[in-house]
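Could you join me in thinking about how sequence relates to backbone shape in a protein? Label the sequence line and the structure token line clearly, so we can match residues to local backbone shapes. Once you have written the record down, we can walk along the chain together.
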Amino acid sequence: MSQPPLPPPIPQPVQVLQYNELSTSPGRPAAISVIGTLAIVFGAWGLISGFFGSLMAFGFMAASTAATSFSTVPTDYAGPNGHYVTEREVIVRAFQLKQPMTPSQQSQLSFLLSDVGTRIVSTLPSSSSVDPAQDYLNTQLTGESGTNVETGSGVWFDLPAGKVTVTDTDATFTPGVASSLKPIKRSTLRTMPNPANPSQLSTAEMQTVIDRVQEIAGSTPLTTAQVAALRKELTTNPSQFIGSPADMPALLGQITSVVPDASGVGKTVTFGTSTITLSANSVVTTTSFSANGRPFPKMRTWPLGVVLTGSLLGLLLSVYVLIVGIVTLRNSFLAPILLRVYAWLKIAITLAVSVAGWWTWSEFWQGIMAQGGTATATMRTNSLSISAATAVGTVLLGWAFPITILILLRTKTVKAFYTRSA
């Protein structure tokens, strides 16, 4: 008789492999759960706020880099009695053929022609010649010319209307005996009373601006009272109207139009960024910003660069801490090291961005008030205080979480929990 089958062998017990003691430990401190959860929350929030912060910083940098304190003078700029650029270039070249000039002298002559050129030289006649400058020289510049032997600098030209003298610093027209014109002197160089504040006008510059306004007004010039009111505005609040032009063409380029009201007596003078209305009776002056608006304040590039760089690094740090939060909740023994790296980086970046942000906002508000021209010492101090308070608040808020992490990681329960993984 066959034997019954033997029972299967008893399986040997298998040792349980414990890859990470922390992963099965029931005693994880609540502080670690809080840190991990907040890390995920702050990481997600940092991605959103960092994205918009980077956009704003980039926008400020782009606007400030492109900003100028005055409108660029159009290439075809000319006064009511001036030659435009296409005609002016030919006439200046004709003068150059007549008597060689330095580049600075050509610039001074060009400015004189752009301002009052039609009063002293003829317009460019129609010509099909391949060299209109030579034709203009042969037909219009028939008088004598030479250099100023007495002074050793500059050149002169005898014209039918009078004499033009050009140096490296100015151009002057002296009318002939039979001419009804008045002497005219123009220079591209400014005579600023305070080089540190280019918006301020010297007496000569102020008169040049007044003359230009009257020229544009034409047959309906400003009254004596209106001129006085305009002069007062340009003295009290020049930056609002003319900005900080580097030279006289840029200064005169700010005056765009003079329009009379229905009565013909009141005037509205339009500058590059604002207008001034002079009433017919009481000469009450009102100002309003034109469609161009105020120019964006000019600010230093390096604080904006620090803010932009900090914002971009903040985006990367947000991604990092979000991942670290997940790692922390998975009880990884690497969590303390990763959290400390985040905490110190966050502290450093927050401090740098806050200081640069304070500098940026201070310059921004100072620039806005400088354009308005009505800022008092108290207003300037308040703007600096607000910027400083904002920076301090940013530091405190930005440091709150990383400092909390560093403190909690030094508590006995958290240290004991992670020590078991060693």
Q: What stands out?
A: The first helix runs from residue 30 to 66. The CA atoms of residues 109 and 362 lie 42 Å apart. Confidence is low (pLDDT under 50) at residues 19-25, 67-73.
